[in-house]
Design a protein that fits this description.
This protein has 4 helices and 4 strands, in the order ββαααββα. It has about 110 residues and is mostly helical. Strands 1-2 form a two-stranded antiparallel ribbon. Strands 3-4 form a two-stranded antiparallel sheet. The protein starts with 6 loop residues before the first strand and ends with a helix.
């Protein structure tokens, strides 16, 4: 029975797993979601900051009562955060978790 971090031929079990095509595929799937989604959110946030800095009159435009464009966009930042979280959870449940579970079973089966 192996212990966590035990050395095997070719490195630790973790190094061996990292070298497998299955782990590489799992990492690629994660990156294909995380990097574009992070970039999209950062751009969305940057647009908000730039509008607040360089278009204050636009951001102060009243939509209803004291409710302004700036407040609407600010609130949409929160909505987009929850939306991204929901999308990630669905993506992980459908794509990442099953592959990670298979990989985990393979690793545990070696011990």
């Amino acid at each position: 029975m192996s212990t966590t971090g035990e050395r095997r031929a070719g490195g630790t079990i973790y190094q061996q797993v990292q070298a497998t095509p299955e782990f590489g595929d799992l990492r690629r799937r994660l990156r294909r979601f995380v990097f574009p989604m992070s970039a999209l959110f950062l751009i969305w946030y940057l647009v908000y900051v730039l509008l607040a800095s360089y278009a204050p009159a636009f951001m102060a435009t009243r939509l209803a009562g004291n409710f302004t464009v700036g407040l609407l966009i600010g609130l949409l930042q929160f909505v987009s955060t929850f939306l991204i979280t929901t999308l990630y959870v669905r993506f992980a449940d459908r794509t990442l978790d099953p592959a990670a579970e298979r990989l985990r079973h393979e690793i545990e089966g070696e011990g």
